[in-house]
């Protein structure tokens, strides 16, 4: 039989030719093989649902089908996903018979494929709390110093200027001159919201503070790597490669950071 399948929420539609006597577990394997460049989790973790309205297949002309193909999930699709997923030990035909479904035809959607989502931690490492506290305690004293006030004023002048500028400010100096502490100092002034991501090697224990944000930094790098692969460009850090994209993993990271979330939900799809 030929099944038309949709990766829910991912704007991905594909067909599979498979024997109805094959197990649902075999169907999961076939789905992963067909989408090997996208699905990175184990095939067994996929959840499969019949795209049914009553005892009929979802027609591709239905509004809910059109939304599904665009990556959206409406109430009709939600109701389908609220049913029990197909049992991996059953044959495909047994699943159709159990639900009194007719033989699949063209111009229909037959299978909803849900890829599990992975929760990534972007919180500060709790085991390094004392290290961070040292920086924060010192920053309360240093925040009112002339050097910090001067830098704060310079940054505000740049950001509030009418000319278009790059959306970042670089503090440049030799190693060990206090750039990391200055970030905490700026945060302590109350004029800026500072979000720490370490740019050095997170495995390098040269600075204990690196370990505090190691998990967050690794997630940030993973988001960038995914986005650069999507643009099919060299991993050069070029902003121009990313600015033309409406959907980026990096946007999800920034959104979670702005909401002060400690976790980032990531699909097991390699977008």
From TrEMBL:
<dbReference type="InterPro" id="IPR045379">
    <property type="entry name" value="Crinkler_N"/>
</dbReference>
<feature type="domain" description="Crinkler effector protein N-terminal">
    <location>
        <begin position="1"/>
        <end position="114"/>
    </location>
</feature>
<keyword id="KW-0964">Secreted</keyword>
<protein>
    <recommendedName>
        <fullName>Crinkler effector protein N-terminal domain-containing protein</fullName>
    </recommendedName>
</protein>
<dbReference type="Pfam" id="PF20147">
    <property type="entry name" value="Crinkler"/>
</dbReference>
<dbReference type="GO" id="GO:0005576">
    <property type="term" value="C:extracellular region"/>
</dbReference>
<dbReference type="GO" id="GO:0043657">
    <property type="term" value="C:host cell"/>
</dbReference>
């Amino acid at each position: 039989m030929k099944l038309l399948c949709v990766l829910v929420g991912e704007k991905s539609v594909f067909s599979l030719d498979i024997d109805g006597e094959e197990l649902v577990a075999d169907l999961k394997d076939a789905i992963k093989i067909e989408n090997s460049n996208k699905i990175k989790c184990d095939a067994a973790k996929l959840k499969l649902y019949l795209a049914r309205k009553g005892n009929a297949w979802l027609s591709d002309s239905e509004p809910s089908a059109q939304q599904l193909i665009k990556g959206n999930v409406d109430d009709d699709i939600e109701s389908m996903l609220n049913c029990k997923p197909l049992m991996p030990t059953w044959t495909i035909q047994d699943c159709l018979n159990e639900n009194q479904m007719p033989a699949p035809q063209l111009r229909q959607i037959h299978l909803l494929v849900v890829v599990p989502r992975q929760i990534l931690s972007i919180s500060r490492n709790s085991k390094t709390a004392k290290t961070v506290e040292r920086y924060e305690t010192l920053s309360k004293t240093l925040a009112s110093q002339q050097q910090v006030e001067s830098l704060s004023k310079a940054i505000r002048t740049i950001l509030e200027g009418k000319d278009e500028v790059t959306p970042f400010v670089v503090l440049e100096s030799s190693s060990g001159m206090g750039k990391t502490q200055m970030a905490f100092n700026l945060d302590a002034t109350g004029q800026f919201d500072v979000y720490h991501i370490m740019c050095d090697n997170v495995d390098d224990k040269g600075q204990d503070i690196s370990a505090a944000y190691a998990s967050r930094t690794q997630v940030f790098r993973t988001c960038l790597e995914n986005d650069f692969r999507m643009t099919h460009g060299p991993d050069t850090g070029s902003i121009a490669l990313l600015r033309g994209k409406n959907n980026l993993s990096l946007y999800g990271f920034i959104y979670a950071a702005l909401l002060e979330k400690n976790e980032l939900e990531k699909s097991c799809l390699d977008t």
